[in-house]
Amino acid sequence: MEYRTLGRSGAVVSAFALGTMTFGAEADEAASHAILDDYAAAGGTFIDTADVYSHGKSEEIIGRWLAANPDLAEQMVIATKGRFPMGEGPNDLGTSRRHLRIALDASLRRLGVDHVDLYQMHAWDPYTPVEETLRFLDDAVTAGKIGYYGFSNFLGWQLTKAVYEAKAHGWAAPVTLQPQYNLLVRGIESEVVPAALDAGMGLLPWGPLAGGWLSGKYRRDTQPTGATRLGEDPQRGMEAWGPRNARAKTWDIIDAVGGVAEAHGVSQAQIALRWLVDRPAVTSVILGARTREQLADNLKAADLALTSEEAAELTRVSEPDVEPYPYGVKAVEQRSRSIAGGR
């Protein structure tokens, strides 16, 4: 297992994190604990959860595993999130000081700990002034309830605003951003990745296999059935079958991943994960395995190395479609210059 610092912090985490959205939903407690056992045995040290995952059950399952494995718990970096609704009231969501105080304390109780290493705002809140959120997070750091904080699903301007508001007030700075990022979803490279690099923040990509699309389990024009996420729900959010199947580029990317996988004699999932973990600013890729078998296969990506030619081909075939301005080639050229000058 490879290890990296958690963004700009001094904390060290494994390059593959264990995402636990499936705990309490697609994986029961026994299966979840077995996945945690396997992850720890492979050298994994970074567990990511959220209060909203299975309405708190994911945190509770992790908490019981931590309590039963104190030696392993000492080595784990624990991350959770707050922001989404945990009740029906108008103050049961958001990033206000009122909601976050209650949400953080509840997460600590469910996890059975007195602090978490990383507390993340699960999304931007358009109603709460960012200064209010940042002041709460700074207070939580000072109180020892959280070690560091970060964001998830922020746009580039939102990230930059938060970074510089924290700096202007002398508050603790954010260290990470958790965005959706994979070979099928690369739109963040236009604004979000540069903002993270500018701020020295680490990326924690979620959805690295694009909801299973990059694992090679689906076939063109054949709607999936059975015990897969799209088989159970073909209209599943951003991963919905219809729109992606209709896009020729989806299958060009999947075919390219398959070709590299065949050359290495490994699964397509491993190739997609290896490409992502090597991208600029990436600290740790979040694996969302439903089973021990999926986790075992995914973790083999840690020992995989792509040639520069293979990585370049995957990058080329998955190049995101952008408007000519402001992200097209000519527009990008306008924002760069030769250090040597000239016309």
What can be said about this structure in brief?
The protein is α/β, with parallel strands linked by helices and 343 residues long. 43% of the residues lie in helices and 12% in strands. The protein has helices at residues 29-41, 57-68, 70-75, 97-111, 130-143, 156-169, 192-199, 229-232, 241-246, 248-264, 268-277, 292-299, 308-317, 324-327, 329-334, and strands at residues 3-5, 12-14, 16-19, 46-48, 77-82, 116-121, 146-152, 176-178, 202-203, 285-287.
Structure characterization notes:
The structure is a single chain. The chain is an alpha/beta fold. 43% of the residues lie in helices and 12% in strands. It contains 15 helices and ten strands. It has an eight-stranded parallel β-sheet. A two-stranded antiparallel sheet has the order 1-2. Strand 8, helix 7 (192-199) and strand 9 form a beta-alpha-beta unit. The termini are far apart. The model has no long low-confidence stretch (mean pLDDT 95).
